[in-house]
Amino acid sequence: MTSLQPVSTKDDILQYLLKEGEASAQTLAESLGVSAQAIRRHLKDLTAEALIEHRAVQSGMGRPNYLYQLSRKGRDRFPAQYDEFAISLLDTLADTVGHDQVSTILQKQWERKAQEYRDRMGEGSIEERVDRLVNLRKREGYMAEWHQVESDGDRCATGPCYMITEYNCAISHIAENFPSVCGHELEMFQIALPDCSVQRTHWLVQGEHRCGYLVQAQP
């Protein structure tokens, strides 16, 4: 007989916040029967993992109280059928209007997403906008980061350049069935950063362990 994997206190915290919406450290300690000190340690870890968020609530003249809730990444830890629904919907569209029309629809969707990124990134230097773009991608479930690349006279001729790296694909199940979804990501970044050139340097679809995009100011 296979034994069930034990549920950790961290899992209990995530499940409690999923059901209740938000809670203080003290409420979590009392509800889960765990010491306040242990709860705060787990909350610190979960915050570092970007699975929960918190907001300060002032009560009287003392120190503010913090209320914790699931982040989008935290919610994505729980079973959902979003991918299956999206794939089924795209399959139905392909059967109804054809694959070419579905590709056109997906391209329009990426153009719309790129404009949304552009609006939310706002004004600022290339570095500031790259940082905002990466943070937007993180909120959507991508394990993303960026770093500056010095001019090397080759790929980064004008410098400075910025490398955006994504180690996972938040829509991988959809991409397996509709590969053109990934192909539009490069176009999306180019639209979101209109004064830059964007080059794909690595691609998960081609068996590499990450997707990479080199961003540099247009000469």
Features:
9 helices, Iron-sulfur cluster biosynthesis transcriptional regulator SufR, 219 residues, disordered N terminus, 50% helix, 3-stranded antiparallel β-sheet, alpha+beta, WH_DNA-bd_sf, globular, Arc Repressor Mutant, subunit A, HTH_11, ArsR-like_HTH, 4-stranded antiparallel β-sheet
Overall description:
With 219 residues, this protein is of the alpha+beta class. It has two domains: 67 residues, Arc Repressor Mutant, subunit A, CATH 1.10.10.10; 115 residues, no CATH class. Helix content is 50%, strand content 18%. The protein contains nine helices and seven strands; from the N terminus they run αβααββααααββααββ. A four-stranded antiparallel beta sheet has the order 4-5-7-6, covered by helices on one side. Strands 1-3-2 form a three-stranded antiparallel beta sheet. The N terminus is likely disordered. Pfam families: HTH_11. InterPro entries: ArsR-like_HTH, HTH_11, SUF_FeS_clus_asmb_SufR_cyano, WH-like_DNA-bd_sf, WH_DNA-bd_sf. This is Iron-sulfur cluster biosynthesis transcriptional regulator SufR.
Q: Please give the share of residues in helix.
A: 40-55%
β-sheet strand percentage: 15-25%
Q: Give the SSE string.
A: HEHHEEHHHHEEHHEE
End-to-end distance, in Å? 66 Å
Number of β-strand runs:
7
Structural class category:
alpha+beta
> Main sheet, how many strands, which sense, barrel?
4 strands, antiparallel
Mean pLDDT: 84
Radius of gyration, rounded?
Answer: 21 Å
Q: What order do the strands of the largest sheet run in, or round the barrel if closed?
A: 4-5-7-6
Number of helices: 9
Low-confidence stretches: 1-6
Q: Which overall shape is indicated by the principal axes computed on the Cα atoms?
A: globular
- Domain module tally: 2
Domain Helix-turn-helix type: 11-49
Organism: Leptolyngbya iicbica LK
Protein name: Iron-sulfur cluster biosynthesis transcriptional regulator SufR
InterPro entries: ArsR-like_HTH, HTH_11, SUF_FeS_clus_asmb_SufR_cyano, WH-like_DNA-bd_sf, WH_DNA-bd_sf
